[in-house]
Amino acid sequence: MNEKALSVRNLCAGYHGSEVLQDISFSVNAGDYVGICGPNGSGKSTMIKIILQLLAPTSGEVSVLGTPQASFRDWHRIGYLPQGLQFFNPHFPATVDEVIRLGRLSAKKFPRRFNRDDAWAVDRTMEWMGISHIRGAMIGELSGGLRQRVLLARALVNDPALLVMDEPTTALDPETRESFYKLIFEMNREKQCTVLLVTHDTATIGKYASHLLYLDKKVVFYGSFDDFCNSSEMTGFFGEHGQHLVCHRH
Amino acid sequence: MNLNEMLSYGFMQRALVGGSLIAILCSVLGVFLVLRRLSLIGDGLAHVTFGSVALALFFRLHSVYMTLSIIPVVLASALGILKLAQKARIYGDAAIGMVSAIGIATGVLLASVAGGFNVDLFSYLFGNILSISSSELCIAAALFVIVIAGVIMFYNELFASTFDEELAKSSGLNTDRINTVLVLLTALTVVLAMKVVGIMLISALLILPAVSALQIAKGFKTAIVSAAGIGVATVICGISLSFVMNLPTGATIVLINFIVFLCAFAARTLLRHP
Lengths: 250, 274
Hints:
The complex is a heterodimer. Chain A has helices at about 45-50, 95-100, 115-130, 145-155, 175-190, 200-210, 225-230, 230-240, 240-250, and strands at about 5-15, 20-30, 35, 60-65, 65-70, 80, 160-165, 195-200, 210-215, 220-225. By secondary structure, chain A is an alpha/beta fold. A 6-stranded mixed sheet of chain A has the order 6-7-8-3-9-10, with helices on both faces. A 4-stranded antiparallel sheet of chain A has the order 2-1-4-5, with helices on one face. Chain A starts with a strand and ends with a helix. The model of chain A has no long low-confidence stretch (mean pLDDT about 90). Chain B is an all-alpha fold. Helix content of chain B is about 85%, strand content about 0%. Chain B has helices spanning about 5-10, 10-35, 40-60, 65-85, 90-115, 120-125, 135-165, 165-170, 175-195, 200-215, 220-245, 250-270. The interface of A and B includes residues 87, 91, 110, 114 and 138 of A.
């Protein structure tokens, strides 16, 4: 599998005159599982938002699934799971089934009507994720872990080629977090879906991701975990203990 | 007075039909507006309508011509609110406040300069659906078809961007276009609702059926359908009650809506903690 799932070249971005991303370049092969780490304010979320065209870069080029961003239209091939909903209203009157079905909109043309295939895709995804029993439940009445699972189902309902997640486990307890990571790992293995996962959890990500991208406004490290573990340069950056912690789990 | 006698009057028939159409529009759009925390856009556009009515009266336009002439002004103001919020880096509520104040100021200024039409102008503040004419009912029906068609065509996109705008955008939906559609449909509805409850109470017709439905709804479609049902039922009850008891129609509709909200709230509380 040699197709590039993502290619970022000389990407720069900033807010109100301050540069958040400086000359970022890297590419991700289809089927890779990339953990994106870095300190607060290192530009991880900004980069994700640029990849999803939620923000515009100041300069640079991004190609997604082999297509330059400007002409990219295959939104159904991308799944996105944010840390949480932007302004989540716990009283929002939507059922789990309705929320997951929204994920199918990206594959549709105006007036974007749902059909039997959509219902089937929703059923199949819920079954795969083990959430069929809550299909009629209201999204606001679910626990944080279940809600994230539903949003993950929404992101996966089109069988995306690229799954982008921005700190999806921040609000979850350790046990739920672990099962969440396992589910994503399974999906990456079984469906060969490329995964970009922004996380602060460097220790756990070492266990699942195939590659690590460490950002601090620019690319500090990008490569496979084996490269990371053997890199003396990274020992200097992370310290022996930090590097060991990540590599030990890997 | 019995039901048959009440319904035998032409003005009652027109009021009930027109009121029901407008109630459906307000309630359906209200669900989207309330959930997007844009409830007060109705109030803001209503105030613009006040300014527009003053302008129309200034040029001696009445009845159907007035309705037709204020539509473009209110549509432009709705777009103005959106653009102000997007381009001038101010929050939506501040943009609504600005446009709203300009609408009221224009109305008061024109009323003062022209003189003589204050009574006419102020009658629009409280509305009277019982005085709806056949031609006004035809306009209401035409606008009803336009707004409902818009909601049906954009239903899933409106739902997606109401649920979470960032997620909708990341699915490739044009959320700017969806927002524009929503405020334009709201602007058309506000112009129509002016006749039912008056400029002062339009936001009540947009908000109350929606919040009542949100107390009890178990799904998004259910919320929309319940809101429409509550809207129609309260408008019909309000018109009938105001006719029988000689009460102001707009105020009666609003207070009945509030009673329904209290009942829905109580039902929800009791169901949760039996």
